[in-house]
Amino acid sequence: xxxxxxxxxxxxxxxxxxxxxxxxxxxxxxxxxxxxxxxxxxxxxxxxxxxxxxxxxxxxxxxxxxxxxxxxxxxxxxxxxxxxxxxxxxxxxxxxxxxxxxxxxxxxxxxxxxxxxxxxxxxxxxxxxxxxxxxxxxxxxxxxxxxxxxxxxxxxxxxxxxxxxxxxxxxxxxxxxxxxxxxxxxxxxxxxxxxxxxxxxxxxxxxxxxxxxxxxxxxxxxxxxxxxxxxxxxxxxxxxxxxxxxxxxxxxxxxxxxxxxxxxxxxxxxxxxx
Length: 274
Fold this sequence. Notes:
Number of strands: 2
Strand content: under 5%
Number of domains: 2
Strand order of the largest sheet: 1-2
Number of helices: 14
Shape: elongated
Largest sheet: 2 strands, antiparallel
Helix content: 55-70%
Distance between the termini: 28 Å
């Protein structure tokens, strides 16, 4: 042991730690059946909590979570199978329990198996946001967004001045936004056309500065997912670069780390480093 390098020791710790987590997941998956059979009583334990703690070191909260998930997934066999087989931890499954339905259980199960915890949290938050967006009234959404706008006193003053002159400031703002969008689209078309002319040469993976500046002008510094406020970390190719060999800005979007992981779950060949 003393002759073992730090790196070897670390890799052994990772290996055994991963195995321990896998076996704890499998143990937790057995608990609902243990509870149904009252197996802990037959074996002389005072409660299922004592049974789980002495045999696997599980806390009372973890036991309650496993039993609760078994009930929540009683009509969702695909998700329940992940629990009872130990293929997914209770900590991951509880993240999707609030949005799970009979209709989406297969889709959610795939995300649980594929995404790491933080990306899974983001994925569930996206689902909840879309649900709220569909059910809330449009005027309430607009009012909430208006409160979020950080207009300077100078800008507000200018807008009020124009409105007092009888000008339609809504039309003016919409015209400005339309002009901005058209300018960005024209620049995208120009870059795209130039890229098409250069297809004879091998395209480097580095995205040109001009394209990066254009994406920043379009999306700012935040993730391109509309309701996400996290900083953008990666420019995602919606058309896989390995196949397209192109940095066409029409198919690029800056994403945060979690949404980038979610985007790649569409591609079955993409392996996520956990």
